[in-house]
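[User] I have long wanted to understand how a fold can be written as tokens. Those tokens are not coordinates but codes from a learned vocabulary of shapes. Could you go through the record with me and say what the backbone is doing? Thank you; the sequence and its tokens follow:
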Amino acid sequence: MIETGSILTTTPNALVLDVHDRPPVIMPLEHYGLWLDPAFKNTDDLRELLRLYEASLIRRYPVSTRVNLVKNDDPDCALELKEKSVTA
């Protein structure tokens, strides 16, 4: 068995448009079962799951530049940056 993963991207909403043109899909927990069901074949219904959250339901904030280095693989990469700048 080989365990793998993928990041699915979608069209940006107004909140993230100036950050990236291909933000990741954020799938609500209640849709996991449908997405992972190998018997479900209606691709139109599945396509509806591949949207970015509404801008009003998410927030964004600055993070440290340590997020830019693959060696920094820890939860601190997602901490909100309170200072002007922090180096890796």
User: Anything to note?
Assistant: The chain has a mean pLDDT of 88.
